[in-house]
Amino acid sequence: MKKIKFPYMDETVYVENNGFLSTWCCKCGNRHIWHFKVFKHKGKQMIEMSGFQDDKGTQLREFYDKRK
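Below the sequence we write its predicted C-alpha cells.
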C-alpha cells in the first residue's frame, strides 16, 4: 500500500453557495470541514460559516501514514 498524498490548497478557493470545503490543518494535523452559506440581511450580503473536525478522516489519514 502506498502513501496517499494530500496536496496543498491554492490560496484562492472557490466554493459554491451552500457548499463545503475540507482542509487538513497544518498545526493539529486534523481534517476540518467547513460549510459556507451566502445570504442577504437588511440589504447587506452576509456569509455564514460553520465548521467541525472530522475525526474519522483524521483516523484514516493516520492509518495510511502508518502503513506507508
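Strands lie at 19-24, 31-41, 44-54.
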